[in-house]
Amino acid sequence: MGEGLLQPMHLLLILAIALFVFGPKKLPELGKGLGQGIRGFRDALNGGLHTEEDKTTEAPKQLEDKPKS
Questions:
Q1: Angle between helix 8-22 and helix 27-45 axes, rounded to 10 deg
Q2: Tens of pLDDT along 25-49?
């Protein structure tokens, strides 16, 4: 019954409908939010064991420029 549920053509159709409904500007934001949600869910399942590793793999923080006196 569930055989071939998510075939490539089905995924393309879902992506096309999402693009039509949300538009090209909103779609990357939705993907990012979905990815963060999945990552948070995995961390919760693992008991937050990998939270320190995740923090180090994020983009580096911008260095603060101190005004010269």
A1: 120
A2: 898 898 899 999 999 999 999 886 6
Per the structure, the complete domain to which residue 31 belongs is given by: 11-48
Dist CA 9 CA 13 (whole Å): 6
pLDDT category at 8 given cuts 50, 70, 90 is confident
CA distance readout (Å), 11 to 7, 41, 59, 62: 6, 23, 30, 38
Question: Two tokens at 58?
Answer: 């994020």
What is the count of structural domains for the chain? 1
Look at residue 42 in the predicted model and tell me its pLDDT.
Answer: 93
End-to-end, the C-alpha distance of the chain in Å comes to: 73
Look at residue 53 and tell me if it is in a domain: no
Please indicate, yes or no, if residue 3 is contained in any of the structural domains: no
